[in-house]
Amino acid sequence: MRYFTFLLTLALLTPPVSAQKLPEAPDRTRGDGPYDRLVIRGATLIDGTGAPARGPVDILVQGDSIARITAVGAPGGPMNEDARLEDGDRVIDASGMYVLPGFVDMHTHLGGVPQQTPAEYVLKLWMAHGVTTAREVAAGNGLDWTLHHRKRSAANEITAPRLAVYPALGTDREAPITTPDAARAWVRRMAEEGADGIKFFEAPPDVLKAAIQEAEAQDLRTAMHHAQSGTARYDVLDTATWGLTTGEHFYGYPEALFTERSIQDFPDDYNYQDEGDRFRYAGHMWQQAAEPGSARWNQVLDSLRALDFTMDPTFGIYEANRDLMRGRRAEWHDRYTLPSLWNYYKPSFENHGSYHYYWSSNDEAVWDTHFDLWMQFVNEYKNRGGRVTAGSDSGFIFKLYGFGYIRELELLREAGFSPLEVIRSATLEGAKAMGRADEIGSVEVGKQADLVLIDQNPLVNLKVLYGTKALKFNKSTRQLERVGGVDYTIKGGIVFDAQRLLNDVEQMVRTAKREAGIAPNADLKLPAE
């Protein structure tokens, strides 16, 4: 268990605590359906494939699947009543609304004991923001617990997205995996247990290669955070060549681009177990890599593209490094962040990602440059036909579940993705990366009815997807208003009122504040404040 815990602390997730377990998510009390016949009328459709928006359309959902999509007129014109679908058990008047595929969050952690974030809290925040599929990487709360929640979600016994479970290398072992044979045996056991994939951090090269290749043989997808404790021996080109399917965060990419060194230029007094060091100097990695447009830059991009590799950048989880104040004072914290989670964020030797001991303007400037180069690399990969997905990694560094995912979409836009490309990354590209594009990821006949309904156009402003909505000045009333917010999240034909889910979360936070002696409407503050 010590070995597994050490590996998990290398990445942005909560180490398992064997003496404690999170409570199980409660039975579902939200959501109506599925219906024999659910009709969504008059919506503008953004189908997730990259095709432009079109509408008005009527959409028929039968049970858990999309049965028909029918054009019913031209925008602003009269409806073609002859084309309209017959009423059903439930009809949603979506005139003036937009329908998108349910979102796929490719990098999630289902709460944790150290943060005291119960599963219900996390799951409802995801669903309230339109996330209908979440890839849980590492199974940090235990494999059995996580698989149990996947099963209950699939049966719609709990309010939750579909869950894909990728246990970390070494899960459920007391001793480290030190040989290729042991790695292969462990991967086979994970396949027998029902895992959807495997998550990697760091291991001896022969062990890592054997595990990746065995996962491929077992038809398991793979994801890797290339921990800096291993990248002197292998980078993303090595692991992708071995068969790795998805690269998380930014580690491993700049190392593959080094031309004037083979190891990152660390200060002589650097200590990787000091997270202040780790994250401060991680911001220097891209500046040491080959320049954009260079032969090496192009070689790495083209090689990864040829391997059909997927990038899951998780820009948002590192955003506080380039703007600490923005991360700390995001407007949703006061209403939706549990006091225990806020306390977890404060500088600490124990809590992972709580390393802003004395973060400086110089640190932020370095990370600004880091983001510029990193975003250019990811955007160019997309432009060359490479697959890029959207993952949040929330629960650390001031990022809140659900809200952090929408921020990731904004950062993809900042990187150079068009709004339609952002939505495709958030939906169909994630489904493809998990090998599930025949079931989910786009609004097409025959696929699962995983849908997001909203009364504002997210292609114009992605901020309307936030649970706190987008600010808009009404020039007629001269009042500042909030517009948007997901109206309905539909998973497998079950219709969830997103605002009710947010209300549930807000009540959890109010109760936690009351128990902690904090006024319900008080701003969350760090202890020194």
Automatic annotation (TrEMBL):
Query: What residues does the Amidohydrolase-related domain cover?
Result: 98-255, 380-493
Against InterPro entries, the record matches this protein to: Amidohydro-rel, Metal-dep_hydrolase_composite, Metal_Hydrolase, Metallo-dep_Hydrolase
Q: Which GO terms describe its molecular function?
A: hydrolase activity, acting on carbon-nitrogen (but not peptide) bonds
Q: Which organism is it from?
A: Salinibacter ruber
**Keywords of the record:** Hydrolase, Signal
- Tell me where the signal peptide lies: 1-19
| Protein name in the entry | Cytosine/adenosine deaminase-related metal-dependent hydrolase
**A Pfam family annotated for this UniProt entry:** Amidohydro_1
Extract the PANTHER family matched here.
ALPHA-D-RIBOSE 1-METHYLPHOSPHONATE 5-TRIPHOSPHATE DIPHOSPHATASE
